[in-house]
Amino acid sequence: MEAAAVRPGRAPSPAIDVDRFLADPSECFGQSLTRLMSMTPETVAALQLAGLKRRFAGFRTALPMLQRLADSQGIDAIEQLDDVLPLLFDHSTYKSYPASLLEKQRFTALTAWLGKLTAVDLSGVDASQCQSIDQWLQLLRTETPLSICHTSGTTGTLSFLPWSKREWRVMTGQFTMLFFRRFGEDGPSLRLPLNVPCVYPFFRHGGMAHTLVNDHFAEFVAGGEERFHAAYPGWLSSDLLLLAARRRAAAARGELDSFKASPELEARREEFEAQQRDMPRHIAAFSDMVLSKLAGQRIFMTATSNLLYGMAERGLKDGARKLFHPSSVIVTGGGGKGMVLPDDWQTPVKEFFGADRINLGYGMSEMCAPFASCELGHYHVNPWIIPYMLDPDTNTPLPRSGTVSGRFAFYDLMPDTRWGGFITGDEVTMTWEDQPCACGRSAPYLHSGITRLSQKAKHADGEEKLSCGSTAGAYEEALDFLNDGTA
Amino acid sequence: MSAALTQAPPVTAFRAGCVIRGQWIEDDLLQFGGRGVGITFLSPDPQRILPRLPLGGAQGMADLYALSFDDILDYIERLGARLRLADNVHLQQALEASCLTSSLTRPLLQRTYESLPHLFNARFAREMADNTVGIPYLEGWVPKTLLDGRTVSIRAFGARALHIIAGNSPFIAALSVLRNAVTRGDAIIKSPSNDPFTALAIARTMIELDARHPLTRHLSVAYWKGGDEAFESRLYQPRNIEKIVAWGGFASVKHVTRYIQPGLELISLDPKRSVSIVGAEAFDSEASMRDVGRRLATDIGAINQEGCVNARVIYVLSGSDEAGLSRLDRLAHYTYEAMMALPPTVSTAPKEMDEQLRSLLNAARLNAEWYHVVGGLRDEGAIVVSRLPEPVDFAARLGKRVANLVPIDGVDEVYAAVDAYTQTVGVYPESLKIQLRDRLALYGAQRFTSLGYAAHAAVAAPQDAIESTRELCKWVVCEDCDPAVTPPLWEDAELFKASAA
Fold it and tell me: Using one digit for the tens of pLDDT, what is the confidence trace for B118-148?
């Protein structure tokens, strides 16, 4: 890495077309991670402000939910970055529908609610016949430009995020740039599809961001389903996932005794029994595929760090090691949300999978592509994301310089059909661009050790955050519950 | 608590101590609390005081039985006279500390402290003891001749009890001291981190009143971190204590259950929530709407909705059609206005807002077809009107003077909302209360009261559908059997047969 050549201030900063940048940053920068991450702070600031103005102007009347918020705040224009702060959505916004709509299968009302969060016209969608979340998501995916994802179900409710298919495609473009290129080592342009086999140790399909994105990884990374290898070929049922989340929330409230699955879910018992019955067979076939056909190949894999660690522990115990080619790309969530792993968890993971590095990312369903960790363990802010640091108690902005700790918020400039402003529940430490990282990237960065504010809430309220790290366990518990009526 | 009483800075170190049976101890201090509590305080190392906390053998209770009930009342009366905030330095210091640790604001705390002399009052204590236990049982053996001719005498003896109290109101500490005194118990009060000083202040006042008095010598107050298993597993043993009174949230009460075993029983005052039900009569006139608005505002806003008695979800027989919703909107406005106008000794803007609740409220505000939010823009409290006949999804999170009015078309719709966690049901009008109380009691409701009195509960009554003060006692039986009257087993007598006499 020629760090000196890419020091901020020295990098050439040609005028960057805002529209091109908003449309697809990786394309705008010729998929050069080095160029993207070497822009001067002034260039980035100008680009972000211009982008933000454009997004606000475009969405002010197109998104009814934003319009109502902006009306109540009396905000009609954005002059500086902080002007958007009163207009940031948070996790409550994306689950602000009454939960009974899901229980009563009132998907027409849900569609109308979702329509207030997206610029995509949903007025022609007839969801009246949907009887499950799975069906509703499928309907929207086939009949509209949307491919909406949902979260894992904080406190028993799902947040629905109206991503468009185009946004997922653009996200995949950024993702491949972030993890298949190395900063300071620009080789020939990436040509999508990459035709790199994908390994995914969970369900191939599902409504959560990390299962939904498989469609795009299959297309642009694997270059075809035949090179996409998921542990389970079927669907991670969103209905069952919600059941899992609601059960956990009920358990935390001490109300498990009165907890029941809906008749609609009971009616699908056969489907779920088959799913559970087939799991051992699928996992055996998956292991066989990975061990025999993919051994020694360069692969791409995403998984939570606790899943990777668990696989590595078991695999190494069975005597397996160095499964794949050292240049394999393994990406995992490094936020450490609710997971307890030993400090050196990467060592057995690298030893087992054979990749010479593990790529860490900090991201969430609400954000286009994760922040990739540099060699120094810092999560660099992607320039299409405008970061904000807020006081955790008052949500007032903290200084945009030096190193500060607080609540992380952002405006994601990439989405062109939904509002990109979001306040997270994460407490982070950020070093701004006036103190650039020694890795050479000019972008500000988050330090590792990100925590959820809810976990350190002043009065623990017994609510359990079902983090992505525990989705698999919760889903299996729900399968047990539904299929045995016990658990 | 003798030193370092400064106000204001975000983290203030308070010097606490502990009281063990009439002795004030402030050795081996460790630091507790921190950001989560609002202050840090120094309290004796729990491990060091542990050996001294249990009473030891039960014979140590004998001195309490040298007292007549009148002696107890006399002591309570004299204690009450010393618990005047204006001239009790311990209470003054406890108030200052509570202003930092408690979720209540200063005016509310001050009013609670100022009320202590009313609670520690001979007439009130007598009424409470009589209505919740029965003074004759506390005072001696109460004989009764049974059908089979024998005489059964029953007496309520005090028990060695650990009181793990909640800190949402200083009143809980005071009530625990009072209940221990009238039942002649030996209490160890574990202070909560959000109210570490109230019980201590009362105990220190008792030492000053009469350090050698049996009632003073059967109260201990200490702090240890809840969940400190190394400490708890040594103290929470049948040889040390007979009963645990556990107040608090689900997790903390559940935690205590692990120590329950034969010889150590649990009196669980576990988490509760309360609802109110408003009949269609509320809409009879402008005056009735205003009246109901003020009563609702009080049930919601009193003690800043920090109590389990406070109304959170309110079912209103307004009807769920457009006309009904518009009536309900008006009631919501009246309720909000009345809540803002409550006296500051009864209710104030919350000390700090629940950030999650604020976010949920803001999101609800953006969904006008489902919710109508009145107020709440300044974290001062809000009324959320559901436009569907169901509570908001965040009903369990309601607090900080945020309540939810739910339109219903028939009383049947409230049954589903009442369960074993439902403590108080405030009802308007009185006729509806009479109509509902038998049915709702079956569903789990534990207290019915006139709308507006939810946060003004009677002390001289059962709590949470249990007679917790009675349960603090050991109910001992003494039988007198005369073979001439009650046929003896050695003559192969039939069991359960009425005497011929």
Answer: 999 999 999 999 999 999 999 999 999 999 9
**How far B422 CA sits from the closest chain A CA (Å)?**
13
Domain that residue A188 falls in: 93-484
* The predicted structure's pLDDT at residue A121: 97
Please name the member of B249, B359, B419 whose beta carbon is closest to the beta carbon of A90.
B359
Q: What is the CATH superfamily name and number for domain B273-450?
A: Aldehyde Dehydrogenase; Chain A, domain 2 (3.40.309.10)
In a domain? residue A365: yes
Res A125 pLDDT > 90:
yes
Segment B307-354, tens digit of pLDDT: 989 999 999 999 999 999 999 999 999 999 999 999 999 999 999 888
- Is residue A347 within 8 angstroms of chain B, CB to CB? no
Q: Is residue A299 part of a domain?
A: yes
Cβ–Cβ below 8 Å for A458 and B36: yes
CATH topology of domain B54-269: Aldehyde Dehydrogenase; Chain A, domain 1 (3.40.605)
Residue A436 pLDDT level (bands cut at 50, 70, 90): very high
Q: What is the pLDDT of residue B59?
A: 82
CA distance A254 to chain B (A): 7
Judge: A253–B250 Cβ closer than 8 Å, yes or no. Answer: yes
* A186 near B CB under 8 A: no
pTM: 0.86
Distance from the B329 Cα atom to the nearest Cα atom in chain A, whole angstroms: 19
Q: Which residues of A252-278 are buried (b: 16+ CB within 10 A; e: fewer)?
A: bbbbeeeeebbeebeebeeebeebeee
A to B CB pairs, distance under 8 Å: 59
Instruction: Note whether ipTM > 0.85 here.
Output: no
Q: What is the mean pLDDT of chain A?
A: 87
Q: Which residue of B has its CA nearest to A68?
A: B366
Which of A249-263, A413-427, B95-109 is predicted with the least confidence, judged by mean pLDDT?
A249-263
The fraction of chain B above a pLDDT of 90, given in percent, is 78
B-chain residues near A99 (CB < 8 A): 393
* Contact state of A92 with B360 under an 8 Å Cβ cutoff: yes
